[in-house]
Design goal:
six-stranded mixed beta sheet; alpha/beta; 141 residues; 2 helices; elongated; single chain; Aminopeptidase
Length: 141
């Protein structure tokens, strides 16, 4: 090396270019850097809705409520010591959310726990029990 030519600085790259102070994350495309959303910046999560199934003996039906609003019900009547399920409905605003399926599953579980025998006259419940054989032990006729 001649006296006239300065030695490359220690920060110089292999090509002799000085990269000292350069931001190595720059991609030189001109695109803005990606935005990282930290948990404290994210929108708060919606609380899970409170779902409750209860037996309404006075109304002779089981009711499923979401956040204290009735979303569906399954009507029954007592006959010869058995629970006859006659009709299941979901309010239109709650359709397509599995309300009737959840209602029937929990209703049949409750009836089993109570030691009740069940007769199914409701088409929806009839279809449900053909697909859920775990309730065969409480279904009559």
């Amino acid at each position: 090396m001649s006296d006239q030519q300065a030695a490359p600085s220690e920060a110089a790259g292999p090509d002799g270019t000085d990269h000292q102070g350069a931001d190595l994350d720059d991609d030189d495309t001109g695109a803005p850097p990606p935005v990282v959303i930290e948990p404290e910046d994210a929108e708060p999560a919606m609380p899970e809705p409170r779902v409750e199934v209860r037996r309404n003996d006075e109304g002779e039906r089981y009711e499923l409520s979401i956040d204290d609003h009735i979303a569906g019900y399954s009507e029954y009547k007592m006959s010869d010591g058995r629970v006859v399920i006659t009709h299941t409905a979901t309010l239109p605003a709650y359709g397509g959310r599995g309300v009737a399926t959840t209602l029937v599953d929990q209703m049949l579980s409750d009836l089993r726990q109570r030691g009740e025998r069940v007769v199914v006259k409701c088409p929806f419940v009839a279809e449900f029990v053909t697909e859920h054989h775990e309730f065969d032990d409480i279904i009559d006729g």
